[in-house]
Amino acid sequence: MTAHTPGPWSDPVTGVCPVAETLRLLGGKHGPTLLHCLTGGEMHFLELSRALGGISRKVLTEQLRVFEAEGLISRTPKQDARRRVAYALTPRGQALGAIIVQLYDWSTARV
Amino acid sequence: MTAHTPGPWSDPVTGVCPVAETLRLLGGKHGPTLLHCLTGGEMHFLELSRALGGISRKVLTEQLRVFEAEGLISRTPKQDARRRVAYALTPRGQALGAIIVQLYDWSTARV
């Protein structure tokens, strides 16, 4: 038997692998990109919409709601004349964003 | 305009986000777990099969082939009486494995 880190690879109660769960949460075409965008600081809806290229208003709104419900991003209505809403990563979202950035670097590096 | 890291969020030629590509590569029920297992060192087929619980021989074989084709793991037939085959992470697989471990820690931590 070769030495290796023992499990748990899955939750002892639910049997679900937490990494697979996280990947599912991130899944979808725009999820990782959205988090990646926000690692640079807060952005308004229209800025995000532009940064994400072809995303529809509806899909972006839904994705933002999912991440807000998961505690990854915060939503702050601004008290300005344009009634803009700013989105930013929570500390938990920032921690995940930092991992996404590493995944990005890994993906683009030809080691 | 709020300061934020500019793109590229997607490959300028293919239009594909490299992180989304990596997540797709990892996707599936057993992919992340398999890499996570191997971060502890090389393992034989049967050890992997046991560590991954309910995985079928067929699915494990296929997943190992995909990761081998992607350059994430190496396959070494042992010159022993049991004709076992050892699987280990390549340097590129190790780099991804280290990120998976961080994802695991993030997933299980309640920040």
TrEMBL record, chains A, B:
Top-rank taxon: Bacteria
Residue intervals of the HTH hxlR-type domain: 17-111
SUPFAM superfamilies linked to this entry: Winged helix' DNA-binding domain
A Pfam family the protein falls into: HxlR
Database matches in InterPro entries: ArsR-like_HTH, HTH_HxlR, WH-like_DNA-bd_sf, WH_DNA-bd_sf
Record's keyword terms, sorted: DNA-binding, Transcription, Transcription regulation
Signal peptide: none
CDD domains: HTH_ARSR
PANTHER family: TRANSCRIPTIONAL REGULATOR, MARR FAMILY
Official protein name in the record: Helix-turn-helix transcriptional regulator
